[in-house]
Amino acid sequence: MDLLQKQFDQSKKNNSFPGYRLQIFFGSGTTAHAKAEKIKADFSTLNPGIKAYLIFKSPDFIVRIGDYRTKSEALKMQKSILAIYPGSFIVADDIALPDLVGNTTVNF
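^ thats the sequence. predicted structure below, dont judge the formating
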């Protein structure tokens, strides 16, 4: 079995595959969790169509946004949020598989 097939099989199992996200917050300390939750909630309110993720990697809280298949998609989004999140940067991450569109039928 080749490496590409192994990666595909693992991605199907985890419902994810390699891609990119934007990191808009990183912090630790006593107030980091509350601050991360607020940043995630504020972002989600302003951008309801873009998923935001709160990640805890001891001792840090991280907020990442989006599920971008290419670095150029992530860069386009980064440029649009730079005024609000000037410290945002692109990170490689396992991203969620896109939702499938409902059943479509083609009639001939």
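The beta strands are 16-28, 52-57, 60-68, 89-96.
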